[in-house]
TrEMBL record:
Designated name of the protein: Oxidoreductase, 2OG-Fe(II) oxygenase family
Pfam families: 2OG-FeII_Oxy_2
Gene3D superfamilies, alphabetized: Alpha-ketoglutarate-dependent dioxygenase AlkB-like
Obligatory cofactor(s): Fe(2+)
One GO MF term: catalytic activity, acting on DNA
UniProtKB keywords: Dioxygenase, DNA damage, DNA repair, Iron, Magnesium, Metal-binding, Oxidoreductase
PROSITE patterns: FE2OG_OXY
Domain Fe2OG dioxygenase: 89-188
GO biological processes: DNA alkylation repair
Length: 188
């Protein structure tokens, strides 16, 4: 991928760990369904979210402001595992719970000012496999990139990626298992 630094680890966590982590997160995370204002109208986000991290690491996107809840032991366990691979110390995590195929994430870049100039995003997937698409922002002749985010995978997006690329999780009519996605970040 030109203008990007993307690394994919399809099996960072084994199947037994994934099952245990998913069940624990589904039960213990304080899930919420926020709404965003688009063209002056409020719309419920098509997924559940949660924000955890170090004290004071507030995150704002799409008109939503999230104050961090304190790290749980399970979130710390996942954080330590991916920090070893990413060689980055993350201070926060945005969790997305995709309950079914109609839950999705629209095209966007993780380029909010509090993430700094070249953010490192460590994205862990647990549960059902979902399609993940990337497209170049400025050069439409560069083909889209498609990944299947498998159970237990880690996707690292770093360097200039967020400057030049957008990504999204599209809706699907196929029957898919629920998926929890954890995107670890460093809030400046």
């Amino acid at each position: 991928m030109p203008d990007a630094e993307v690394l994919f680890y399809p099996c960072l966590f084994n199947a037994a760990d994934c099952e245990q982590l998913f069940a624990t997160l589904e039960a213990e995370i304080a899930w919420r369904q926020d709404s965003a204002t688009i063209f002056g109208r409020h719309h419920l986000l098509p997924r559940l979210t949660a924000w955890y991290g170090d004290p004071g690491k507030t995150y704002r996107y799409s008109g939503i402001s999230m104050e961090p809840l304190p790290w749980t032991p399970t979130l710390r366990q996942i954080k330590v595992a991916i920090e070893t691979v990413a060689e980055v110390e993350f201070n926060s995590v945005l969790l997305n719970f995709y309950r079914h195929g109609q839950d999705s994430m629209g095209w966007h870049s993780d380029d909010e000012p509090e993430l700094g100039p070249n953010p490192v995003i460590g994205s862990v997937s647990l549960g059902g496999c979902r399609r993940f698409l990337l497209r170049h922002k400025g050069n439409k002749s560069i083909p889209k990139v498609e990944l299947n985010l498998t159970n237990g995978s880690l996707l690292l997006m770093q360097g200039p990626t967020q400057h030049f690329w957008q990504h999204h999780v599209p809706k699907t009519r196929r029957t898919v298992d629920p998926r929890i996605n954890l995107t670890f970040r460093v809030i400046q």
